[in-house]
Amino acid sequence: MFASKRLGKELMKMQEHLPPGISIVKSENLEEWQMDIKVLDDNPLYQNEIYRLKFTFGSKYPIEPPEVQFIEIKPTSTEPPETKRPIPIHPHIYSNGIICLDLLSSAGWSPVQTVESICMSIQSMLTANTRDERPPGDSDFVSYNRRRPRDINFMYDDDNV
Amino acid sequence: MESDDDDFMSVASSADDFMGTQGSDDESLGDDFGDDFDGGFSKDRDIVATARKPYEVDQKVLSPEDIEREQNLQVNEVSSILGLPPESSAILLRFGRWNREKLIESYMDHPEQTLDDAGLGTNFESTPKAQVVSGFMCDICCEDSDDLETYAMRCGHRFCVDCYRHYLAQKIREEGEAARIQCPGNECHMIVDSKSLSLLVTSDLRERYRTLLTRTYVDDKENLKWCPAPNCEYAVDCHVKQRELNHIVPTVQCDCKHHFCFGCSLNDHQPAPCTLVKMWLQKCEDDSETANWISANTKECPKCSSTIEKNGGCNHMTCRKCKHEFCWMCMGLWSEHGTSWYNCNRFEEKSGSDARTEQARSRASLERYLHYYNRYANHEQSAKLDKDLYLKTEKKMTSLQSSSNLSWIEVQFLDTASQTLQECRQTLKWTYAFAYYLARNNLTEIFEDNQKDLEMAVESLSEMFEKPVNELANLKVDILDKTAYCNKRRVILLSYTADNLKKGEWLFNVKW
After folding, report:
1. Which of A102, B253, B254, B445 could be joined to A108 by an S-S link, Cβ 3.0–4.6 Å?
2. What residue stretches are annotated with the RING-type domain (chain B) (predicted)?
3. Cis peptide before A62 (omega within 30 of 0)
4. What is the ipTM of this complex?
5. DSSP character for B187?
6. A111 vs B187: CB contact, 8 Å cut-off?
7. Which domains does chain B have, with CATH numbers?
8. Confidence band (pLDDT; 50, 70, 90) for B26?
9. What is the DSSP letter of B165?
C-alpha cells in the first residue's frame, strides 16, 4: 500500500514529462518496471546504444531501495536490430547487468530518490566514464554469484568513476 | 541543561547513581587520553592493589545500566561545557569516538566545521516538533492531505510522521543502525538525534535503539569489551591497550564467571600472549591433522624434499617432481642397488645414511610440533571433559553426604578441587603452545620445571578425584592439600611467565 500510491504518483509525473534520453518501457504492474536510457553526450563507449534497466520494487519501497539492474536483449533474426539492448561496459557494471552503485544500497539510499532520479544518476555514471572495462573479477562474479544484488556487500572503494 | 527534561535516555539518571560512579569514571576518562605506555600499571595503582599478582590486571565489570549511566554522565558533561543540547552532544561524542578532550578542542577551534562533520548542522534555534503544514506533500509517500502530521529536523527536510516512522523502523530493526541514521532527505548528512527519535517511534523501537547505541559505545571505547559468553550482557572495563599485548596477557573475569582475554576476547589463554595464541590456533587448524598423517604415512624425497606417500608397489621410487630415483626402504640411490631389485637388504651404505640424516632433520621439526600439539590437545580434551566432571562432582557430593557424616559445607572441597583442575588444565594447555614458540635460554629450564611441577600436581589431584565415593571422605585432607598445592604451582608458573614477559626476557623462535 505504501509503494503503490508513491509509484502511481511517480508514473503520473513521468508520463507528463521525462528528462531527455529516458523512456518508460513497461510500467503496468507495481512490482517491476523497465526503462530505457541513452547516453546523451558523445562518449564513444556508449554511442548509438540504448540500454534497458529493470526496476524491482519491494513492498517497503521507497523506504527500501528498489533493485535495479541492466538487462540484455538480443534480437532474433526475425526481429529488427534496433531492439538490441546490450549491457553497457563500465568498471562498476558486471556483465550480467548488476550495478555497483552506492545510491542503490540501503546505506546510500534516500527515500526521496525516484525511478527518474535513479535513471539520471545511472546516465551520468555512464557519461562520466572513460574506461572501457568491466569490474575486476567480473567473470568469477558472474559465474558464481547467486545472490540478489541487494544482499551483496559491495565495496565502494572507487569514487572516481 | 537540566537533567529532568532530557528524555533522550531516561533510565537511571538519579543523583545517587551519579555519585556512585563518579570517582571511577573520572579515572576511566583520564586514562583514555593519557598516552603513556604504563597506563595499566601506574605506580599508585600498584600501591592501592597490593594483593595483585603479576599476571592479574585491574578490571571492572559493567552492567548495561552502568554503561548507560557512564554514557549519560559524559554526554551531560560535554553538554554543559559546550552549551549544546544533550542529544546533540551525544552525537558529537559518538562522532569523536568518545574522545572528550580531542572533541572539545576541535569544537573550540572550528565549531561550525566540527558540527557539520558530526552531522549536526549549525542551526540550533528552532525546537523541532511534529506539526501540520498546509499545502505540504510528503516526498516519500506523496501524501498531501490537509491534516497530515509532519516532522523535520533542524536541517528542514520535512516528511510526514508516518514515513519518518517507517524509515526509522527500517534502519533500526532491519539494518541494526542507530548512531549513524541520517535524515531521509537525499544527500543530507544530518544525524537523527535521540530526541527526534523518541518523538517519532514506538517504545519497543526506542528500547532497541538504546541497546544499539550502548553497543556502539562499548565498541568505540578501547577500554571496554563485551563479555563473549553466550547471553551475557556485561562489559568489562580494563585499561590494557592493544599495543601492550606483547608484554601482558590481560585475563579478566566477568560477573557471569566467564574468564576471558581482554586483548582478543578468546577464553583465558595465560600464559601465552595473544599473538602467539593466534599463530598457534592457525597452525593447529592448518596442520595438526595433516601433520599427524604425514608423520605416519609419508617420507620425503632425499633430493628435493617433496613429501611422498607410498601407497603400494615396489621400493623403487621415482620422485614425480625431480625424477630422483631412490629406494623407499633405505632412502639411498636406486642405482646403487645393483641387482638386488625390489628388495632392499642393504645397511649403512653412504648415500642411504646421508639421505636418512637429512630426512631425520626435517622430520624433527614436525615431531617437535607434534610433541607440543599432542600435549596441548590432551589438556584441551581434559578441559572439555570438565563439564562432565563438574556434574559428576555434584553427584559425588550428594552421595558423599549421605554415605558419610559430612555436611554440605564439608563436601565443598570436591567442588573447589574440580574448579582448580579446570583452571590448571586450561593453563597447562597454553603452556605447551607458549613453549612451542619459545627459544631456549636460561629461563626456559625454569619454565619447564614449573610446567612439570604443575602437571604432576594436576595429574595426582585428578587421580584422587576419580576415586570411588566411599574412599573420598578419607581422602579429604589429601585432596585439600593437593588442591592448594596445584593452585600454588599455577600461581608460581603464571607469575614467572608474566614477570618475564613484562620485562621482555623471553626469547622466541618466531617473529611477532
Report:
1. A102
2. 134-348, 138-184
3. yes
4. 0.83
5. T
6. no
7. 3-261 (no CATH), 272-371 (no CATH), 385-512 (1.20.120.1750)
8. very low
9. H
Put simply, whether A147 touches B (Cβ < 8 Å) is: no
| pLDDT single digits (tens) B136-175 | 989 998 888 888 999 999 888 999 999 999 999 999 998 8
Architecture field, domain A2-144: Roll (3.10)
Render pLDDT for B363-393 as a digit per residue (tens, 0 to 9).
777 788 888 998 999 888 887 776 676 677 7
Half-sphere exposure of B278 (CA within 13 A, CB side): 10
Report the pLDDT averaged over residues A131-158: 74
Chain A residue with Cα closest to B142: A6
A121 touches chain B (CB under 8 A): no
Domain boundaries, chain A: 2-144
Closest CA–CA distance from residue A106 to any residue of chain B (Å): 8
- Distance (Å, whole) CA A136 – CA A91: 8
B116 grid coordinates: 557539520
Contacting residues for B20 by C-beta, under 8 A, at least 6 apart = none
**Structure-block grid coordinates of residue B480:** 585439600
pLDDT of B10 > 60? The answer is no
B184–A112: do the CB atoms touch at under 8 Å?
Answer: yes
CA A154/CA A13 separation, integer angstroms: 32
Kindly report which listed range (A33-37, B312-316, B320-324, B376-380) carries the lowest average pLDDT score. B312-316
- Chain-centre distance for alpha carbon A26: 14
**Reported pTM:** 0.68
- DSSP for B194-212, please give it: HHHHHHHS-HHHHHHHHHH
CB atoms within 10 A of CB B132: 12
Our measurement of the distance from residue A16's CA atom to the centroid of its chain's CA atoms, rounded to an integer in Å, reads 21
Element (H, E) at A69: strand A67-71
The shortest C-alpha distance from B162 to chain A (Å) reads 10
| B159, B160, B162, B163: best to mutate for the A interface, most A CBs within 10 A | B163
- Grid cell in block for residue B300: 620425503
Residue B314 catalytic? yes
Q: Is B13 exposed, middle or buried (0-12, 13-18, 19+ CB in 10 A)?
A: middle
Question: Any idea what DSSP says for residue B172?
Answer: I
Residue the block writes with cell 589431584: B461
The predicted-structure confidence for A66-113, as pLDDT tens digits, reads as follows 999 999 999 888 888 888 999 999 999 999 999 988 899 888 899 999
